[in-house]
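Record 1 of the preview.
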Amino acid sequence: MDIRIEHVAKSYRLGQVEVTALQDVSLDLAAGDFVSLSGPSGAGKSTLLGIIGGLERPDRGKVLAGDQELTALDSEGLAMYRRHSVGFIFQAFRLLPALTAFENVMIPLVPLGESDAAKQKQVAQALDRVNIAHRANHLPGELSGGEQQRVAIARAIVNSPDVILADEPTGELDRRNGELIMQLLRDLNQNGSATIVVASHDPDVVGAARRRMVMEDGCIVSEETQEA
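->
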């Protein structure tokens, strides 16, 4: 899915202080891009991911995802966009502790009108794709950090999203598991058409992306492209 961001700005109010998260950001992402966002804390990386994913609305500017103008959609329209087109991967995994790995991955499919058999097949395929199917019936507390993040990635890809957004996906993992997760993201990008945007401080994560953007003070200040 192609994504175009045009002159987007976003601010938050913290008490009596207004904090600028993004200022006049413009960005084109082609279908199948693998992009990293790096920069100091507070640079605007997570806010930009939230706007691309339809979790947040900009104060100004326009966001186009495929043939949809996200900034013109109502709350229900944004929910449909997230449900059908976007997969989210978070640093803290955000798995529900009382549900098994299989049940956690099933969550994005619950609102959809498919049969139970079709949903179960999709979950099994997603777990297999990230090599965690053998732990499908385990609770998150019974899994290692790397295994939990694999389950989180399976949840993110179970609906075959056009866009995968990852916010510090290796931040709570040791180096070995972090490398495994990044290899998974590379494989997902190369073997499918998903556009992947990763926000991270980790130089290994940044190095895995083909397009590497640096953010400071709510702006994209530099970009480089790694040759294939």
